[in-house]
Amino acid sequence: MLIGVPKEIKTLEYRVGLVPSSVKEFVKNGHEVLIETGAGAGINFSDEVYEKAGAKIAGSAAEVFEKADMIIKVKEPQPQECAMLREDQILFTYLHLAADAVQTQGLVDSGCIAIAYETVTGRDGRSLPLLEPMSEIAGRLSVQVGAYNLQKHAGGTGRLIGGVPGVKPAEVLIVGGGTAGFHAAQMATGLGANVTILEMSNPRMRFLDEYFHGRANIVYSNAHTLEEYAQHSDLIIGAVLIPGASAPKLISRDMLSTMLPGAVLVDIAIDQGGCFETSKATTHADPTYVVDGVVHYCVANMPGAVPLSSALALNHSVLPYALRLANEGWKAALSKDENFRNGLNVCKGEITHEGVAESLDLDFNPEPSALAA
Predict the structure, then answer these.
(1) Burial 199-215 (b: 16+ CB within 10 A, else e)
(2) What is the DSSP letter of 97?
(3) Is 150 in the same domain as 240?
(4) Which of 45, 50, 219, 346 pairs as cysteine with 107 (C-beta 3.0–4.6 A)?
(5) Options 31, 47, 96, 234, the catalytic residue
(6) Is 296 a residue whose pLDDT tops 80?
(7) Rounded distance, CA 1 to CA 330, Å?
(8) In sequence order, what are the residues at sequence separation of 6 or more whose Cβ sits closer than 8 angstroms to the Cβ of residue 37?
(9) Model confidence, pTM
(10) CATH number for the domain that contains residue 210
(11) Catalytic residue at 47?
(12) 104 and 245 in one domain?
């Protein structure tokens, strides 16, 4: 199979679909890899390094899309990339379709087989092994960027996240105790903040309570507790995820007026539409905006801020799945593994993921005829 890796074109996105070590694995398995020139330059992987790993270098994205049997990316295809996809071509990347009707229609029109990293499930049927590495990074980054934006010159309350002797640290509220929320809490407690995690799952609350052992408050999440804690928080991190579906809007516009002037909201769920009513996607070039005195950080590719770490972590998780697609073909790989099949979002003109279809009010077919054949 010919594997194509185009250069990412989202604003200030420097990650790359395959790092050189992953290219070597594809070549070792008898496949060809075609990398767009400069695809890894942003993280110091030159064309020469890729050629030594066994890849061929393409002069343009158009050449990659034209020749490749499978496209491996990091971020969702932009409109000009959707236009280059073709029928029967495999696309393996993050898609986040629930908040993107335009991209969804582009994938449907292309006739491609679009498999989303973020909806592939683990052996337990619940975990998200290809989303977890980016959730871990986004969770840790959320505290880092939140601490920066709490500084007064950035519009924040002016409170040092860890405090100093005699002065209390920042109050950090983390909404959701999953992978991203857990890693955010690790960072925030490590910096000395007063941390509260809101969570609904009783087993998860018990895990968090045992892990943090008093270093973070674990509180059952409902509308009342969210409103109560939000009023006194310097930094609120939204880390709620419903796989494949739009994120629930947990903090309303009305709640902003009850919050501290200069409080900071970091919306990790922005790829899925965001979990704050006032969230709108931003970029690393212009990451924040202010609504009713509250700073919003809603960058849709947060891990892109640390692209070297992110690309390596992502490749470690994605490579075994990508090799299965290449070695076995997409039909065989998905047919024999229900959890891998959960990653199929669009197949030859049909939406195949229920969460995506419900979010966009579209029809879906969980068992497309192309897969059955």
Answers:
(1) beeeebbeebbeebeee
(2) G
(3) yes
(4) 346
(5) 96
(6) yes
(7) 11
(8) 7, 47, 57, 58, 59, 60
(9) 0.90
(10) 3.40.50.720
(11) no
(12) no
**Residue 3 — pLDDT band, cuts 50, 70, 90?**
very high
Q: Which of 183, 271, 296, 353 is catalytic?
A: 271
Number of H helices, E strands in the chain: 15, 15
The domain boundary residue, chosen from 251, 286, 305: 305
Are 110 and 70 found together in one domain? yes
282 and 354: one domain? no
Task: Tell whether 175 and 147 lie within a shared domain.
Answer: yes
Domain count of the chain?
A: 2
CA 34 – CA 43 distance, rounded (Å): 18
Q: Mean per-residue pLDDT for 318-323?
A: 98
d(C-alpha 44, C-alpha 20), whole Å = 11
Q: Is 127 domain-assigned?
A: no
Same domain, 152 and 116: no
Range of the domain at 188: 132-305
| Active-site residue flag, 292 | no
What's the rounded Cα separation, in Å, for the pair 188 and 194? 8
Tell the residue number behind the tokens 């109050």, with chain if given. 171
Give whole-number Cα distances, 152 to 115, 159, 295, in Å. Answer: 43, 8, 11
104 within a domain of the structure (yes/no): yes
Q: At residue 342, what is the residue type?
A: N
pLDDT digits (tens, 9 = 90+) for 31-58: 999 999 999 999 999 999 999 999 999 9
Residue 172 to residue 233: CA distance in whole angstroms: 6
